[in-house]
Amino acid sequence: NYLLGVGRADCTGPVAEIPLMGYAKLDQVGGGLLMRLYSRAFIVAELDDSRRVVFVSADIGMMSQRVRLEVLRQLKSKYGELYRHDNVILSGTHTHSGPGGYFQYTLFWITSKGLIRPSLNAIVNGIVKSIDIAHQNMKRGRLFINRGTVENSQINRSPFSYLENPAAERSRYSSNTDKEMVMLKMVDENEQELGLISWFAVHPVSMNNTNRLVNSDNMGYASYLFEQEKNKGMLPGEGSFVAAFASSNLGDVSPNTKGPFCINTGDSCNNPESTCPMGGAKMCMAMGPGNDMFDSTRIIGQNIYSKARELYEQASQEITGPLSSAHQWVNMSDVSVELNATHTVKTCKPALGHSFAAGTIDGVGAFNFTQGSTEGDPFWDGIRDQLLGEPSNETKACHKPKPILFSTGEMTRPHPWHPDIVDVQIVAIGSLAIIAVPGEFTTMSGRRLREAVKREFDSHGAPGMDVVIAGLCNVYTHYITTYEEYQVQRYEAASTIYGPHTLSAYIQLYRELARSIATNTVQNLQRGPEPPFFSISNLTLVPSLIVDLVAVNKTFGDVLQEVRQQYQPTEVAEVTFVGANPRNSAENATEHNFLTVERYTSTSDSWHVVQNDASWDTRFYWTKGLLGRSNVTIEWHIPHGTEPGIYRIRYFGHYKRRLSNNLTISIPFEGTSSVFEIT
């Protein structure tokens, strides 16, 4: 028995003009909204409240050190020593369709155009708010765990790297991806359902790098389905049941199950370099199971949801026992790893290899880089040496066989380009151990880590632990491949920033944490060197907000393109309004809703909301015009089984107006479509 609390809060941030975080594609900037992003928080405390732990899964690309430091500062000022670095895990789902700009290390400024305060604030405040809600709703309850296999939802996107792992090791596994889902179910003492956390390893990249609508991808869609199912009659984002679909060791795992094809010829490009005979690597893209990216997101999300629902209904193994948490900060650029009694190796200063720039079959890079390059390219190396400086011989040697593209550990202007100080953390809830990892472990890396941690628990008096990896926690350090995978330098290996012995270093560190939990000596762990907190106010290339304008004889919210009078389910109702920059709304309101779909009730002569901007079936597009003008188009993809009747679509925005030279205010407005009938 424990005290349990769950909470959910919006963390969407600005849905326009902010680069989306994930594919590192500069022109992929937000242009609207498909689904809202949420932070989901779960607090577990012992009945005497002597110890508690927090797990947060947020619909963002990854946790950043900046977000974590700001969240923990806020928690400290609110709750004192209750929520700390050791007992709070912050994990990102790894959607590639959320706003970027929430990082303090310079490398991430390149693709997200700097540090964007409104984006950072939305995430920090959303996480803190979700924890507040969970904190305020603590009640006695019980935890159950279940596990099962998810089929038809993943492929390994670097199978040639996986094959480098020893044959004896590979023969112990039936697949080159981890198909297991681990599910934690929460109920209160009256069997009232509170929520669940599911961990499953797959990249949320069903939405590809042409997408401009902010959304939470396949994992978010699974959350959406589960919460809609349990919060009956509520709009998306409302209701007390919270379902988190969290990331795990997804490093080399893609949801694009049809595999890689050349988009120009239709031939397979499942080769070690992921290149096509015509057009090279740029033409090689993996496709999901659907007929477009929306459909693929729905299918993969539905698969994951269905398995979670089955595991949830059948969960009977109760979790009991004490809570504990262990955390250290480690300088990952300088860890000595004892491989055996005679052999010690070291990690390296961070650096990215040439194949980092190649991207993956889920989203190819720019220029002519290919995966699997163990040789540099004189052209790009020459440019790099001129612009950023040549890597030191020491770093080059340490990272071999990786040819270094960016020696980020030796680049410090205006701030360091990559973190040195990294969080390692394990939280134990009875027999469940959650390993919070700061990046993307590949399938085999994750297997080795889980096994090593489990063995450590077993041999120190805590046998039979369920060990799960929570991905993209606390600070982002890219990928972690095995030593063998590292040798062939595909994308994941080129992005293993601390060198070939990164995984061995983490295994050594997490074994120490596990041992300290098992032997109840957590208090003896060294804290390690504290991470830096750079003073950056707002440094960004995102265009500044200008005054919104309208065409002559038009006002904000006027309809430019009207709905039809009649629709049937499966058709799309569409309306275009005179709009204003949605960033105005993000800066004004935390809970702003851009749209509603409303149904007329004749008995009460009133309209009630049936869909909002968090609904999967609604799409909100913002199109920027010239000189401060813009349009908003709202689509409602009318689902099967929609009740016949009279409907309308409404749009809510804010426009910026200048009062004097240096003072502008945001003024709310709305627009409403004509009524239409669904037959």
From TrEMBL:
Domain of life, per lineage: Eukaryota
Protein's name in the database: Neutral ceramidase
Keyword Lipid metabolism attributed: yes
Active site positions, chain numbering: S254
Organism of provenance: Nestor notabilis
GO biological process, one term: long-chain fatty acid biosynthetic process
Domain Neutral/alkaline non-lysosomal ceramidase N-terminal residue range list: 2-508
Pfam name, any one: Ceramidase_alk
Catalytic activity from the UniProt record: an N-acylsphing-4-enine + H2O = sphing-4-enine + a fatty acid
Binding site for Zn(2+): H94, H203, E440, Y479
Family matches, as InterPro entries: Ceramidase_alk, NCDase_C_sf, NEUT/ALK_ceramidase_C, NEUT/ALK_ceramidase_N
Domain called Neutral/alkaline non-lysosomal ceramidase C-terminal: residue spans: 510-678
Family to which the UniProt record says this protein belongs: Belongs to the neutral ceramidase family.
Keywords assigned by UniProt, alphabetized: Hydrolase, Lipid metabolism, Metal-binding, Sphingolipid metabolism, Zinc
Any one of the GO CC terms: extracellular region
